[in-house]
């Protein structure tokens, strides 16, 4: 279809078997991209690839630990060699992080877990794909953060620092890669309302807070303070995140780089 936004683009999605990664992968494939799914769990990657193939798209999977620099480099080089380059990359890998524990009760290990995990993964994946982007064909690196990057809320120290770090990384990398024709854009969704049913770790993440409030995680997200704390009175959906990522990865957003796209439904007003 000539109207496909990502026709003939090569897209690598780390964490492609997860809720957000899988949703983005399906949207990219629908718009004509050749999708390369990487992650630690082959079964979930293959499930997403099967859905893409059933819909007429193209997807390949590979078991890759994003904290293993050699594995990440070899995978990116293999994709580029086979496909002729890498046009789009998204790191949708998630790491456990505490929500709800104050400083007095938070250990250094709990604080550092998301900071080290998220930023190490963002560095390694970005470095691996960037060397196969730019030149004759432009490139786009998409990153994911959270409203914790700017919200003044207690009990989310590690989460907030890691989110802010990912956004700072995206802006600085955009400046560095712009001369090569590579754009870098961050996406900042709030908690995704339909992610628990899609296999996200969201349920585990908010279980402690929901239990303390005497509600289920879904009730916390949809009817509790999270949704009501936004201007729209709701949280973003997986489909909305995926469609936004697809637009940002396309040539229709060619003038955008160094930006953080606010998908907090108005929890944050930039």
UniProtKB/TrEMBL annotation:
Keywords from the named record: Oxidoreductase
Superkingdom: Bacteria
Signal peptide (UniProt feature, chain positions): none
Pfam family, one: adh_short_C2
Similarity section: Belongs to the short-chain dehydrogenases/reductases (SDR) family.
Protein name: SDR family oxidoreductase
């Amino acid at each position: 279809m000539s109207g496909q936004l990502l026709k003939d683009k090569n897209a690598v999605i780390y964490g492609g078997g997860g809720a957000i990664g899988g949703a983005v992968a399906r949207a990219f494939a629908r718009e004509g991209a050749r999708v390369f799914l990487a992650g630690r769990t082959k079964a979930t990657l293959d499930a997403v690839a099967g859905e893409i193939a059933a819909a007429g798209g193209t997807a390949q999977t590979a078991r890759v630990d994003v904290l293993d620099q050699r594995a990440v480099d070899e995978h990116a080089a293999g994709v580029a060699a086979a496909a002729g380059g890498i046009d789009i990359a998204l790191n949708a890998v998630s790491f456990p992080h505490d929500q709800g524990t104050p400083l007095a009760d938070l250990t250094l290990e709990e604080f550092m877990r998301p900071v080290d995990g998220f930023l190490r993964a963002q560095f390694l994946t970005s470095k691996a794909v960037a060397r196969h982007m730019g030149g004759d064909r432009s490139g786009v690196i998409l990153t994911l953060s959270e409203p914790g990057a700017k919200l003044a809320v207690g009990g989310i120290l590690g989460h907030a620092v890691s989110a802010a770090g990912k956004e700072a990384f995206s802006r600085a990398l955009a400046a560095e890669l712009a001369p090569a024709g590579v754009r870098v854009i961050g996406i900042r969704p709030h908690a995704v309302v339909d992610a628990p049913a899609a296999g996200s770790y969201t349920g585990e993440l908010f279980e402690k807070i929901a239990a303390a409030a005497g509600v289920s995680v879904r009730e916390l997200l949809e009817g509790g303070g999270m949704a009501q704390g936004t201007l729209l009175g709701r949280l973003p959906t997986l489909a909305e995140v995926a469609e936004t990522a697809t637009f940002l990865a396309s040539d229709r957003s060619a003038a955008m780089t160094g930006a953080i796209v606010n998908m907090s439904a108005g929890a944050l007003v930039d």
